[in-house]
Specification:
Helix content is 34%, strand content 26%. By secondary structure, it is α/β, with parallel strands linked by helices. It has helices at 21-29, 57-66, 68-74, 109-123, 168-173, 233-239, 243-253, 308-328, 333-346, 348-361, 365-375, 381-388, and strands at residues 12-17, 37-40, 54-55, 81-89, 95-106, 127-129, 134-139, 144-148, 153-161, 183-192, 201-205, 213-221, 224-232, 265-266, 271-276, 286-287, 290-292. Strands 3, 4, 5, 10, 11, 12, 13, 14 and 15 form a nine-stranded mixed β-sheet that branches. Strands 1, 2, 6, 7, 8, 9, 16 and 17 form an eight-stranded mixed β-sheet that branches. The chain contains twelve helices and 17 strands.
C-alpha cells in the first residue's frame, strides 16, 4: 500500500489572541494543563487601553480563585486608587452615595494589563509574542492557521479570540453586523487638579438629555482622574453626537462640573473607543476550533460599562473548555457549545438584567431622579444598590 504523509502537528495546542485581561486569564488558567500555549498581541507592553480604568472586584476575585497570589500581586500595582464607594448624580442634581462590599480599585490599563502579563510570564510556560499583528485566521481540517502581518504563518489546534471589540478572530470566523442598540461609544481623557475628586470614590453623572449613558470621574492615583463619557451608539447616531466635543462641553457647562474643572489640566487628548454590550441579544461565542472571550464576545455590562470582570471570567471558562477539547480530541462546533452554555449560565443573566434596566430607564429621567431620592432612605438603599450593581 502507498504511504500517505502524516499531517503536520500544529506548532501550538492553543493560541490566545490578545494579551489583555481575557487572554492573560486564559493563559493563567492553562498553566498546569500541559498544553503548548501561545499568547499573541499586536502591541508591545506596557500599552494604553482606552477605557474607564475601573478594575471590578469580581475580576480580582476570579483571578484569586486561580491563585490568591495573582490577586495579591495586582493589588500592588501603582498608581492605583482603592475604591470604597461610588457617587451617582441624577439628572435632578441629587446625589446618592453607595458603598461596595467587594474590594476593587481603579488603575490605568497601561499599568494593570502589564501587571497581568507579568503574572503570565512568571507563573506559566506560555510563549508570549508582542508586536505580532494577526491579519487572517483560517480553520482547516486538523488545525487553525494564523497569518501574521509580517508574512509568517502559525498553526494551532484551537484559537481563542481575546482581541477586543474589533476582534480579528471574531470578524474572520464569526462575523456579526454592528447593532447600535447593543453597542456603546465612549471617549476618555486624563486630567489632574480636578476639584472635589476624592480618593476612594468613583462618580457617575446622568443627564436628562442622554440617559443611555453617563459621564464618569474615576481617580486612578498620583493625582490623576480618568474622565469619560459613554453613550449608546444608537443615541449617538440618532442625534449625531460628537462625543469628543460633548465631553469638554459638559465639563465646562454642567452645573455640578463646571467649577470643578475650571482649573483642571488635561494630560492628553480625548480618545474614543467602542463597547459591545452583552445581555440584549443572543450572540454565539464559539465554533469549530475557536472561542471568543471578553469584548470579542460582547460581554460588556450595559449599565455600568465595565467588562474586565467578564473578560477574566470568560477567559477562565474558555481555558476549561480547551482542556476538555484536548482530553476528548474533539474540536467540533457541537462540543464547543459547552462553552456557549457556560457563558450563558454564568455571565449572561446579570448582563441581561442590566440591559433591560438600562433600556427601561433610558427615557425616564423622572424615574432615575425618584430612584436616587428613594435610595437615600436606609431601608431602600440596599435594593437600589443591588439594582444598579
Amino acid at each position: 500500500m502507498p504511504a500517505f504523509p502524516t499531517p503536520p502537528v500544529p506548532a501550538y495546542d492553543v493560541a490566545l489572541i490578545g494579551a489583555g485581561p481575557a487572554g492573560c486569564a486564559a493563559a493563567l488558567a492553562l498553566r498546569h494543563s500541559g498544553l503548548r500555549v501561545l499568547l499573541l498581541d499586536k502591541a508591545a507592553f506596557p500599552r494604553d487601553k482606552i477605557c474607564g480604568d475601573a478594575i471590578p472586584g469580581h475580576a480580582l476575585k476570579y483571578l484569586g480563585q486561580l491563585d490568591p497570589a495573582f490577586a495579591a500581586a495586582l493589588w500592588q500595582a501603582q498608581p492605583r486608587d482603592d475604591v470604597r464607594q461610588s457617587r451617582l448624580v441624577a439628572p435632578s442634581g441629587r446625589a446618592l452615595t453607595l458603598r461596595w462590599q467587594l474590594p476593587s480599585f481603579s488603575c490605568p490599563r497601561e499599568v494593570f494589563d502589564a501587571a497581568l502579563l507579568k503574572l503570565v510570564r512568571r507563573h506559566s510556560a506560555t510563549e508570549i509574542r508582542e508586536g505580532a499583528v494577526l491579519k487572517d485566521v483560517r480553520v482547516e481540517t486538523d488545525h487553525v492557521r494564523l497569518s501574521l502581518a509580517d508574512g509568517s504563518d502559525l498553526t494551532c489546534g484551537l484559537v481563542i479570540g481575546c482581541d477586543g471589540a474589533h476582534s480579528v478572530v471574531g470578524r474572520k470566523l464569526l462575523p456579526t453586523p454592528l447593532a447600535r442598540a447593543h453597542h456603546c461609544a465612549g471617549v476618555r481623557a486624563y486630567f489632574e487638579n480636578v476639584q472635589g475628586a476624592e480618593p476612594g470614590q468613583t462618580e457617575f453623572f446622568l443627564t436628562k438629555d442622554y440617559l443611555q449613558g453617563y459621564l464618569w470621574i474615576f481617580p486612578v492615583g498620583a493625582g490623576r482622574c480618568n474622565v469619560g463619557l459613554g453613550m449608546l451608539a444608537e443615541t449617538v447616531a440618532r442625534h449625531r453626537v460628537d462625543l469628543r466635543q460633548l465631553l469638554p462641553q459638559l465639563l465646562a457647562t454642567h452645573p455640578a462640573l463646571a467649577s470643578r474643572f475650571a482649573q483642571a489640566r488635561p494630560l492628553g487628548p480625548v480618545r474614543g473607543f467602542g463597547l459591545p454590550l452583552g445581555g440584549g441579544r443572543r450572540v454565539p461565542v464559539s465554533g469549530r476550533r475557536f472561542m471568543l472571550c471578553g469584548d470579542a464576545a460582547s460581554l460588556i455590562d450595559p449599565l455600568q460599562g465595565h467588562g474586565i470582570d467578564t473578560a477574566v471570567q470568560s477567559g477562565i471558562l474558555a481555558a476549561a473548555q480547551a482542556v476538555a477539547c484536548f482530553e476528548k480530541q474533539d474540536f467540533s462546533a457541537d462540543l464547543m457549545q459547552q462553552y456557549d452554555a457556560a457563558v450563558a449560565q454564568k455571565i449572561i443573566p446579570k448582563l441581561a438584567r442590566s440591559y433591560r434596566l438600562m433600556r427601561f430607564l433610558s427615557d425616564k429621567p423622572w424615574l432615575v431622579n425618584a430612584a436616587v431620592r428613594l435610595g437615600q432612605l436606609p431601608a431602600l438603599r440596599p435594593w437600589v444598590q443591588k439594582a444598579i450593581g
